[in-house]
Specification:
heterodimer, A: 190 residues, alpha+beta, 22% helix, B: 11-stranded mixed beta barrel
Chain lengths: 190, 200
Amino acid sequence: MKSLKLILVIILILATQPDLSSQGKWEREYRAKINEIPEPAKRFMDAFPEPGRLRWYSEESNDGKTFEAKFIFKGIKHSVEFDSVGNLLDVEMAFDFDLLGQDFRRGFEKNLLERFTGYKVIKAQKHFNGENLNIAGMYDNQAELNVQYEIVIRGYHRKKYKLFEIMAGSDGSILAIEEIILKNTDSLEY
Amino acid sequence: MPGINVNTSLSKAWDLNLRVESRQIYFRDNSESEPDYDFEFNLSDYSVILSYRNSPLTRFGGGYLLRLRDNKLYHRLIQQFTVARVYNNFRMVHRISADETLSEGEPARYRTRYRVALEIPLNGQSVDDKEFYFRVSNEYLGSLENKEFDLEVRLTPSIGYSFTEFNKLETGIDYRPDSFIHRETRHNLWVTVNWLIKIR
């Protein structure tokens, strides 16, 4: 019983502390029902006949609200993002990094090794900007489209590594690097 | 089986985890006597673990646990290593640990443990603030006491609510069959309530 009292005292003390949540940027994503999705977004999805396991998500953040459709098409995972009124923002497709051309991989590696002592690719996606996007061209003629690559890596520096999300141009140039900060895993570790 | 888990960052790589847990028995049924529905205080645990994050996904830790049971003190040393994995729709942590329990007048007990724990969001692809999630863990413990080896298994499904990323409440059950080898297997079922907070 003494330990129960101790637990209750600790709860009382901690419950009266200032808010433990982080301030600043926030975001929240959740499954969205089909009747919440703007009509232009639903019409765009007609370009993908019979998309497998289509799921709609809504994401809210300081920057506003977007909708995202995730599905499998031609055996590849796709993610299509729309703004709050259904205008297309971008399309992302998972792909095997090892299938990229030598020109890209040489340029990409050269640029990465200027920042890291080593790296390992964790996953990769092709990123198509939504402006004037030709759906058929995404599969048949990517050379004419403004393809960028979103690649997650383990970047090594002085024998330690961190996770980074890199946006690369079609020539392997580094357009943006952002460190990935994992959410708290204490509830799973202890 | 209520518990509070408080974690605090000492630096970018070092964390300190403090845990208080107690157990109360409400129902006991064994083959030797009639089922007993009497409330009985079982034990209290107070633990502290210092851990070092050597990479975004892995962490080493070591600590000490003090147990009060039957008016006796038990001292436990803990060593653990965790590996986290993040997938599209869930997160998983593998934990390998060892502990040594000592108490006056009782033989020392040594255990090695492996646990896998999953966190699955119930809305969307990740657990956000003010959302529910499902957590389940499965653990295997091998123990050595008095030159006798035995095995215990634990299955712990629970539902959690994330007030914020650093403030969560979980409740569920903890099913523990043990004594598979040397004695008649016992089946223990605990109801768990855990509050997990991180103070940065």
